[in-house]
Design a protein that fits this description.
By secondary structure, this protein is of the alpha+beta class. The protein folds into four domains: 199 residues, Serine Threonine Protein Phosphatase 5, Tetratricopeptide repeat (Alpha Horseshoe); 73 residues, Alpha-Beta Plaits, CATH 3.30.70; 102 residues, Rossmann fold, CATH 3.40.50; 104 residues, Hypothetical Protein Tm841, Chain: A,domain 3. Helix content is 47%, strand content 18%.
Amino acid sequence: MHNVYSINGEMLKAAMRAGFANLVKYKEQINYLNVFPVPDGDTGTNMYLTVSSAVKEMEAVENNDVGPLVKALSKGALMGARGNSGVILSQLFRGFATELENNKEIDYKIFTSACDKAVKMAYKAVLKPVEGTILTVAKAVAQGVKDASYHTRDIKILLNKGIIAGERALEKTPELLPVLAKAGVVDAGGKGLIVILQGIANYLEGKDMGDIELEPIKEIQSITKVEEIGEFIYCTECVIKGQDLDESQVLDEIRTLGDSTLVVGDSSLLKVHIHTNNPGCVLEIGLKYGTLHDIKIENMTDQGRQPNNSDEIHEEIKEIGVVAVVSGDGLGKIVKSMGVDKVIEGGQTMNPSTEDILSAINSIKADKVLVLPNNSNIIMAAQQAAKMTDKNVMVVPTKTFPQGMAAMLGYDATQDIETNYKSMLEHYKNVLTGEVTYAVRDTVFGDVDITQGDILAILDGEIIHTGKDLNTVTMELLATIVEKEGAELITVFYGKDLGEDEAKKLQQDFSSLYPDVEFELYQGGQPLYHYIISAE
């Protein structure tokens, strides 16, 4: 068995590919570890998309020194980060990269300190760190590496010792988080981290991981596409490669040519995206700084949409803009009618990336923007996006669509952003959220045996009723909301797989039992969730 006393750029690329390959192999197993047996923002999928983005960004760098490679790795992970696990993973990469940004190679000392820095950066990024998660596992890995560094300079041995310590910590995560113990699983994010590290260790030990294709990441688009065109026709993208590239300098020059402007990267590579009427001018600016690659220019009216149509809504420059993440055409129309400017299509099983949210923020013609994530697994990505723009962005930490809708009731475009933020916080905290979906796997939750396909009724994140009949389980949930919580107004949004007749039957059954409770019914069009219920 050969020793590994240093890692160069070529080895780093191969190691990260091996880590990604192992993650691909175990992705569904990690998804299965999700605590709730509901269609969720699958941890394995989110980590997979995050690492895929990171590796693709790294492999686009021509310089084979470790410093530029880890910078690109960090940038790619941050822009592609999806879900809480993906964002935390991106922060681990970021901390690791900051310790190595001036290095050509990695030796045991810098590897040890970079692992420590990675953990510190990740903990710092989380407002209220919770033990029993990927953070706990990462901390154990770094400590295992550090302990081993007193006895060997072989990075392969250091990593393996770190993995062993991390696996021990992973097995103990249910002791730290009761919700894991209740579901009988270990932490999914922690498992994902171990899987990535095991892939890297396999490479260092000389094992062939095979050739893994980096799948193209499907960009999450706005569901209000006709408004995305606005006055600009050409979606223009390119990569600029050069030396001493200044991200902010290029952004300042290009942003005057259109909107939806995005310039990200490092000193040797910048990715550019803009909606403009002058793609040639964008490319000319790029040529001033370096060589152009991956040029893509699309006429956005070729999809049957003509600019300046009478039904097109032209965005005006405004004081404050609002971005909301919503899944379902009906729900999107509702929040648009309440004053939301940009709707990102996403939610359960389809968490938008940091880049998706950042792009939406930058596309609004306002210097101040409020963001409604409407999902607990999207809040961290939204907060990261808020830090990456020169606009004043505040994230209202809504976890459900009813919370987001309630927050919009507190929105007043004539007030300043701070006043709106406080008002929206107060409004959404007073709403109850009910959800009706189905079990994706057999499990035992608490004292309840759940079988795949069972109908699940959830109230503010807790599974409170299960059964085989959709109408019966939904009525049980509504009864709990009215009789135990004292709700006087019920608003129900039915999903895309339900017909209006079935939803109206629910309304009739409810109103016959509770004639004094106001009941409103809307087509939400959301996938996966048969009903979403807002109660006050």
